[in-house]
Structure formats: C-alpha cells, structure tokens
Description:
Number of strands: 11
Strand content: 5-15%
Amino acid sequence: xxxxxxxxxxxxxxxxxxxxxxxxxxxxxxxxxxxxxxxxxxxxxxxxxxxxxxxxxxxxxxxxxxxxxxxxxxxxxxxxxxxxxxxxxxxxxxxxxxxxxxxxxxxxxxxxxxxxxxxxxxxxxxxxxxxxxxxxxxxxxxxxxxxxxxxxxxxxxxxxxxxxxxxxxxxxxxxxxxxxxxxxxxxxxxxxxxxxxxxxxxxxxxxxxxxxxxxxxxxxxxxxxxxxxxxxxxxxxxxxxxxxxxxxxxxxxxxxxxxxxxxxxxxxxxxxxxxxxxxxxxxxxxxxxxxxxxxxxxxxxxxxxxxxxxxxxxxxxxxxxxxxxxxxxxxxxxxxxxxxxxxxxxxxxxxxxxxxxxxxxxxxxxxxxxxxxxxxxxxxxxxxxxxxxxxxxxxxxxxxxxxxxxxxxxxxxxxxxxxxxxxxxxxxxxxxxxxxxxxxxxxxxxxxxxxxxxxxxxxxxxxxxxxxxxxxxxxxxxxxxxxxxxxxxxxxxxxxxxxxxxxxxxxxxxxxxxxxxxxxxxxxxxxxxxxxxxxxxxxxxxxxxxxxxxxxxxxxxxxxxxxxxxxxxxxxxxxxxxxxxxxxxxxxxxxxxxxxxx
Length: 598
C-alpha cells in the first residue's frame, strides 16, 4: 500500500526562508498580522487531514468509482467520500482563504495553495469536489450581483453547497465560441437554459444538499463566436430569496464519463432542459467572468500535478531504499544482503531526483504565484498590484502546462522505479500516472497554454511582461554573479536568460511573417520558459541553503537542497538547448506534410 507524508518542512523552507512571505504580508493590511506560526499550525492540521482522512480513500475510490442512478439522475461517489467531505466542512477548510464578509477566514491564498497541494497528493479525485467550488466562489465574488453574493457565497464559503463550471459541449472542445446552449429571458428577470455540457467535474453527487453550476450559454440575439457568450448561475435545486432550497431545477446528469483516471470524481454529462438561471456579469461578457474561474482552475490543475509528483516521489524513494536487486556497478554496498538496494544504481537515482527536482521547483513556483495573487488583490500600491497581476498572468500557463508535463514525466519515472510492481494496482503508482494524465488535457490543453504564453502573454505586448520577470532574474544574477559557490547555478541561468531575449525576438519576427511559426514553436517555447522560471527558483533555493551551510547550520535538509539543485542544473536544465533548436526549425517540417498525412 502507498504512503504519504505531508512535505511541511519544504513548504516552510520556501515560504519562510526563500520567499519570506510574512514580510510580504506586512505590506498588505488585510494580512499584516498573519505570522509564520499561524501558517505552520494551519498546514500541520491540514496535512493530518490529507494523510489520515482522504489519502486512505484514494485507491478504494479509484476501484469503486461513481455510480449513476439512471431513473433519478443522482450520483453516488465512492464509499467514504461523503463522510470525508463532512469532516472537511466541519474543520472549516472550505472557508480558509475566503472573504470574512461571507463567513471566510480571510487567510492568504498562499496558505490555501499549500493545503490543496497536500489534498491533491492524498486524493486528487476527492479534492476536485471542493476545488471546483473555490473557482465558483472566485467568479461569483468578482462578478456576481449583490443579491447573488448574499444568497450564494455564504453557502460556498462554508462548504454547505459545492460549485461547478459548465463550459464545453460535445462538438466544442476548447473552442467555446462554437457552443450552442441557449438562454431564454423570462419576464421575472431569470433565464431558461437548454443544452448539453460534457466533462463537468464534480457535476453531480450527494455530498451536499445543493450544487451551483456556472453555465456558459447564448442569448437569443447573441453575436456568433466567443463575443456572444453569457454566464449564468444555475442551481441543482432552485433557491428562494431567503436561501431555502426549493424545487428540483431542470439540470441533471445524463451520464458519467468512463475515464482513464480520477475515477472517484463524477465527471458528468450535464443536460439542461428549461433550467432556471440568473445571469452573472454582463450580457455577452460571460467569458470575462468565467476567466476568473478558469484562471484559478489553471493554477489549481498545476497544483494537482505538483501533488501527484510529490506523493509518487515519496513512494518511489521508499521502495528504492527497500527493494534489493543486483549489485552496484562500483562494488557491493550491502554486504549483509544478497543484493544491493536499487537506490545505488545511477539511473534509479536519476528517476528519483527528476521527480524530487520537479516537485520542489514546482512548489516554489506555485507558492510564488499565490503570493503574487495576494499582492495583486490586497497591496495598497496600485503599481505593485498591476505588476503582480501581469507577472502571475505570464506564469499561469507555465504553472498549468510545465507542472503537468513534469508530473507526467515524474509519475511515469516513479512507476518505473517499481519495475513490474509499478504496473500493479495495489502499489498505487499506476493510479498516480493515470490520474495525472488528465491534468495535461483539461482547462485548455497544454498546447493551448503554450499558444497563450507565446502568442498572448509574450508577443501580445512585445515581451514587456517577460522583460519584467527578466529583471527579477537579473537582480539575482547581479547579486550572486561573483560568488564562486553559486556559479554552477547562476551561470546557466544567466546564459538562458540572455538567450531567451534573442529566442523570443526571432520567433516573434518569424510569426509576424507566418502565424504557423508561432504554433509550431509554442510548446517548445513554453518548456524553455518553464526551465527559465524553475532555474530562477532553484538558484534562489540553492542560495538560501548555501547561506545556512556557511553559517554553520548542519541540518542535512540544506545539503539535500544544494544537491538537488546541482542535479537539476546538470541533468534537466540542459533540455533547453534541444528545445530551442527544435523551435527554431520552423513550421515547414510540420505543415508541408500533406502526403505524409494523406
């Protein structure tokens, strides 16, 4: 059976020693009193909840899956899920970073980020039920009317009700401009919605008394394409003005998707037959309102793969220390045993260190992004808010795509460490691989994220935001450029930072002449950008660790951090050279292939 130990020490290292989040919070009036002891205490309890309540349900939930009653359209999640959710609500976890005006605890997003990483490690399928609710909360909080906020937000904040996002349809995929769901205005100011939605995570269940669906649909006179989409709040049960639950609404689960992974989550096909809803935001501006939820979801999906990378690494490491097979190439290591533990073999260590480097680098990036979100929302200086928002927008597609791609690499590597046993269900490793695979697809495939990064976030403003992040990297390079102990980390980072400017300019020029050049290079470009960002954070983590070691701190944690940074820059970071070469090879080898693809 697999195991899970919350990585509290590493979270504390990133937050308190590298990023110094509590110092950042002192500049935010809303969070000025949040200290390290408070954060640590909350995360310690959250870790217990993840490890003791939801993790034991992971394999059983995957085996059992969800069950749909075709007559009633009700869905029953796996055994134990409903009880675990009740404990989640009882513990106040749903309200952690929500607005106190609606019953929230008002803690920084940074805390919520770490809580959700642990929940994703423990049980991604279960975590998606409350996770989608957070996105619904954010969209309503940003774009809901006062009446909608008063009526619905306290229920989402407490966890009494859950929320979903109903975006795509069978013929759409990511191209939401093609959606057909209709919304007919009614005399009382409501709308009646008719249509079909697919791939709705947590779309139906009996864990709460009501589910609030945020649904994209078209008004009768809406223009074609994405500029004619509006957003509606459609509850499973109609809600009275006093908040009481009324009649069953015309929205129900037609069937459940049969999936490769996340079997414990009810991925529903949703049917709307005259379902009553209210508009969220302005007419035909639904995508702008939904993007609040979608961007939160993109960061959340990156966090899902971060969680799976961490738990897969922990189990592969434990197995590699225990499993004996063959002898070390450099001589016998375990003389008292008939073979050596497989952790002595170089390639086993490479697989383990790959997962460790991607987990710890991803954690630093994810915490940094949520710190930026806190600053964007609450910093008193308008320029700081604007800059924070710009940089987190730049980094969001990297979090979504780079972390999920890395999760795919890491979970597969960790399954490989187990050899044949990794392919067997009881060890849990094959489930981590299967569950992670969806993360590269939904909330916009990783190719869509790559196009967003290169086309919109970088070339869209002539690299202005990229240059802002480049200045942050440049400050670290200037600070440590003459430190010999940091040279193995700073020199490759400085080289790539310099190359990135030339690389981006070249692709922009080629894309201006032929847009397919951007499409051909985008995926490679995002991965190069991901390594640039990871390189920055690994250099900062190495810097912090080396300072502790120089100061006489003998905690082996710091030496481990330096060794992992050294591995990352030696074995993973050089991938960027190949990626830049393939990106520069252009679109002709892809597009001039009609005969090959006939």
